[in-house]
Amino acid sequence: MKNRNPKKSKEKKPVPRDASFEEDLHRLLEMILESGARMMCAKASSLLLVNPKTQNLNFKVATGAKKDEIKQFSLRVGEGIAGHVAREGEPLLIRDVSRDKRWYRQISEQIGFKTYSIACVPLKVGDKVIGVVEFINKEGGESFQESDLDLISVFSELAAVAIENAQKFKLAELENRGLKQELNVSHEIIGESPAISRVVSDALRVADSMATTLILGESGTGKELLARLIHQASPRRDRHLVTLNCAAFPETLLETELFGNEKGAFTGATGAKIGKFELADQGTIFLDEIAEMSHSMQAKLLRVLQDGIFYRLGSNTPISVDIRIIAATNRDIFAEVKNGGFREDLYYRLNVVEIYMPSLRERKSDLSSLAKHFAEIFRKEKGYDSMEITDEAMDKMMRYDWPGNVRELQNALERAVVMGQGKQIKPEDLPMLQSESSIDSMPVGMTLQKAVNEFKKKFIEANLKNTGGNQSRAAEIMDIQRTYLSRLISRYGIKK
Ligand SMILES: Nc1ncnc2c1ncn2[C@@H]1O[C@H](COP(=O)(O)OP(=O)(O)OP(=O)(O)O)[C@@H](O)[C@H]1O
Ligand SMILES: [Mg+2]
Q1: CB of 224 closer than 6 A to ligand 1?
Q2: Which of 121, 295, 372, 427 is the one with CA 20 to 30 A from 471?
Q3: In the CATH hierarchy, which fold is given to the domain comprising 448-491?
Q4: Nearest alpha-carbon partner for 223 in 209, 213, 212
């Protein structure tokens, strides 16, 4: 074995690429088998793995004169000596295969290898048979003995450990890749306005600490997105971020969601259930819509925060976990505290740090980059080559006040991209209400002068439209001089 144990050789390479990784495992199995064959004085040996989907046994590694030819064959589980061992999970020693009904002679005949005796053992990970190792024909024409089986078992265990480690390693690598993708792609907070920049820098500052954080802000402003950012910028990033929407469950269910329960804890508790607090151990729990929690749940949560322990429903064993809590609400939680709807002591425990997500109205300067970001996402999703937002459509979005915030904008663009059919998004493709004249949707964030000019432009356009482009008539209705109207038309760039 040349002092090469499977664990050591794997540790040598930190993050191999897929191909070299498979090669490494293959080479390792080959070495295990080669030394096994040498020590057993076997003329040939093979390692076969079960494909769990097809239940076929495939030759993975082989030694001996026909080691390349053999690889084109496969057996069914239950077929031949190897298939029998794979099915039964017990070692098998056949001193003379020609006298054993289980032997599948076709393979030996086709590759022209005369088989006399076989020693075969299962390859197990835990209780599960993942394949078999077999040694064929002892040198000098002897047959294998019972005592040889012990030795083969050592080799099959070594091979199983190598395979198991490789599988775990591969899984870890895949998970790692998934996390990285999540980090890079989906949790990008778009926007450069001073308001959002401050939020992001506050979030990054608190990320490192354990501080319980309360995120406030209207619906659709990106509170959950921010919670993810905090988690992923924190030292807990490699652990779970577990989300629980407190508004989504009635009180009794919320309790088992959070704390879990033992089997039989209540009618219908057919099995034990692990709560989100336990799942989030070492990680972060995001309690969304926290203000919707009932009074008694608030009391229970407070106790957990104070004592640092909780109990699964129906159990007396205290569970202690290490979690970071981030909570969010779109309600005016301070007003709730004032009017007794939310416990003051819990409020102060939760808002060690408080971050306010600005509404889209408060950061209109981000609207254009957000709109382009979503247009691009949906363009790709729908498979269009290009998608441009016209100035008029952008104007319309700027004038709208977005009560549903970024989520509403996102939905509006999804629809607009479909309506725009892969070319342009025009104002009429945007589903928002035409509420420009309503006082509720008055534009904010611009000077009075600019707002007045905007209004004048719209007003003149509407009057011209009304008179079919007749300027004299429009001037008369608006009670202004015809020459003054013409000057306004060119000043505001109104199309005639
Ligand atoms: N700054 C941003 N950049 C990119 N996408 C954003 C941004 N803010 C919000 N979004 C997107 O808008 C949608 C709503 O965000 P999110 O779910 O985080 O809002 P919320 O404040 O939790 O809303 P609610 O209170 O309704 O639960 C999500 O799809 C999110 O990805
Ligand atoms: Mg949310």
Answers
A1: yes
A2: 427
A3: Arc Repressor Mutant, subunit A (1.10.10)
A4: 213
